[in-house]
From TrEMBL:
Residues 26-95 form the RNA polymerase sigma-70 region domain. Belongs to the sigma-70 factor family. ECF subfamily. Transmembrane segments: none annotated. The lineage of its organism: Bacteria, Pseudomonadati, Bacteroidota, Flavobacteriia, Flavobacteriales. InterPro entries: RNA_pol_sigma-70-like, RNA_pol_sigma-70_dom, RNA_pol_sigma70_r2, RNA_pol_sigma70_r4_t2, RNA_pol_sigma_r2, RNA_pol_sigma_r3/r4-like, WH-like_DNA-bd_sf. It comes from the Bacteria. Residues 130-169 form the RNA polymerase sigma factor 70 region 4 type domain. This is Sigma-70 family RNA polymerase sigma factor. Keywords: Sigma factor, Transcription, Transcription regulation.
């Protein structure tokens, strides 16, 4: 049978009727997209693998207990599950990316807010994507420090060792990165709060 011609909705339905192979097709069809999404948030292959497995354990459990009712929207549903598991991972490990030492600039600390409804979460995700694009506009040395500090949760000592500069230089680059990021945000008139 031509796997690609069968819609997600039919595969879900077949799986619920006891056809185990249907789930394998669904997983292989979407694994690259879901794996890439998780990796883009955690930057760690082992953690990505764990969250990916947990995502499909949750998918299977929800399907088996009849908790899936979003016909035709299988991928967005699975992506939401993986997104929530990523947030859980950061919360559990107290590694939600934050600017600890700059109280007035903490867009990253709101991303794990459990009270966000789906619509707000999509907006927050969009803001996060926009911020990533702005970060890409920074000079390379500043961008590297910012990404290591915020997304990889590295200490300034680790950053200094990784980039082969003094801790003061790493701190300085972070400071300039934040100043430049604010300028870009103001220039683009981006509003980071509700």
């Amino acid at each position: 049978m031509e796997d690609m011609l069968i819609s997600d909705a039919v595969l879900v339905s077949n799986y619920l009727k006891g056809e185990e192979a249907a789930l394998s097709i669904l997983i292989s069809r979407h694994q690259q997209r879901i794996y890439s999404f998780i990796y883009s948030k955690v930057y760690d292959r082992d953690v990505t693998e764990d969250i990916f497995q947990d995502t499909f354990i949750k998918v299977i459990r929800t399907l088996k207990r009849g908790g899936y009712n979003e016909e035709g929207k299988f991928l967005p549903w699975v992506m939401r599950i993986s997104h929530n598991l990523v947030i859980d991972y950061f919360r559990k490990n107290k590694r939600m990316p934050k600017f600890d030492n700059t109280g007035d600039f903490n867009i990253f600390s709101v991303l794990g807010d459990p009270d966000l409804n789906a619509e707000k979460r999509i907006i927050k995700d969009q803001v996060e994507d926009d911020v990533r694009k702005l970060i890409d506009e920074l000079p390379e040395d500043q961008r590297d420090v910012l990404v290591m500090r915020i997304y990889n949760d590295m200490s300034f000592k680790e950053i200094a060792e990784r980039t082969d500069v003094s801790i003061n230089t790493a701190l300085g680059r972070m400071r300039y990165a934040l100043i430049n990021l604010r300028k870009v945000i103001e220039k683009n008139n981006i509003i980071l709060t509700n």
